[in-house]
Amino acid sequence: MEGGLKVCNRNKSPCLSIKFITCLFLLLFSVLILFHIQASPYGSSSSPSSASWAFFHQWNHQPDLSTTTTETLVTKLRDSVTFLPLKDLRYADTAMTGTTWFMSSLNDTQEADEAEYLYFPSRESKGRLLCIKGRDFHDGTKNSYALAWPESLPDSATLMEGVTFVSDTYYNYQNLWHGLCAMAPFVRWSMKNECLKPTRWVLFHWGELNVKMGSWLQHLMLANFGETKMEVFDRGNEPYCFEKAVAMRHDLGSMGQENKLKVFDLLRCKARKFCGLNPAGRGKEINERGGPTIRLTLLMRRGSRSFKNVTVVADIFAKECAKVHGCILNFVQSEDLSFCDQVKEMTYTDIVVSPHGAQLTNMLFMDRGSSVMEFFPKGWLEHAGLGQYAHHWMANQAGMRHEGAWWDPIGDKCPFPKDELQCFLFYKDGKVGHNETFFAEWGGKVLDQVRKSKLEQASKKVVTTSNTCVC
After folding, report:
1. Is residue 430 helix, strand or coil?
2. N or C: the chain end with fewer CB closer than 10 Å?
3. Using CA atoms, how far apart are residues 86 and 104, in angstroms rounded to an integer?
4. Secondary-structure class of domain 275-458 per CATH
């Protein structure tokens, strides 16, 4: 202490300077505090001590400015949600072959040997949900879609909970084959994702809303997924946003052969179970002579592409069936069968004989390795293009043997020889004739082939048919 005083006494000028600066600093600090108290909107006419308390109290309890900022940002995000036409007419010419016109601003998720799909919310959607507005049944450009974050959905939006399956197809959901092609990718997606089932369906055709499937397809999806709501957007033009959504717009698309087989195996299994069928051991039936039982089904249709003379065709195959011991001929009219009747008929069919048409999609319910014989009217070979091979493709995808096809060579000439489309339309709904010699030889050959195959199968101990479904 004494040392310190001596230092200070010996250096009076520096010591005084330090004291002066310190006092000046304290004075200025006090003035600033008083000024802030007087200028503060929280100040009052109370005593300086209470005013100071009020200032520090308010300083420690200011409104959370981040809350206001967040609300402002949410409002801006909500207002910035932009709805685009579901159907983009710029891509109308490439809707089947290239860029799709349905939700054209979005890119599909691509996985090896899987159908292309869109999933919301996802990394690709930056965590945003899919929202759809509009229920126009005739013009897809009047329906629209947008992406929105869950915290900033559009005003008046309805949030639809659960998993929504959104489908758009170039064809339709009434035809058995086209409808199956549109739904198969959803079945595959479900199989890959712990057999998740949809809460609802949202169906579009060219961006136009559909509110129902054909009866056959509806029953098939019921068998696979159980009861599922068909969304009709009953609030009109108000936006609907989906908690989770899977969108398909390319039908089977790039799905690989092995995955197609898995899908059709599951659908076959589910349909049989739904209809109360358990064909364990199918394909190993042996008749009293020790030969295999072969079931030959004539699956007929009425109207377009039906046989001109059904009786003659039935007689041809009946004669060939009679030549093979153990062959059982069954004649059925597809239009007269319920869904489960069709499942049952085809479950117990080894060979199906049928004109080209949607009814052939029922081959789905036959065991793998079963045989398909297909017949066409005059003009289809020359003018139908690739579409005539649809059931050939399906037989391959479902594990069947497509035994070839017969195209009727007899019929009127096309009156529009230079117009391919008009010629196809001229022949499209024609009826199918017959060639007794060819039909008999062809039928006999297929029956013999199936007989040998079933003998070989019967000698094996492995049961190939199971009623245990994957999902």
Report:
1. coil
2. N
3. 8
4. alpha beta
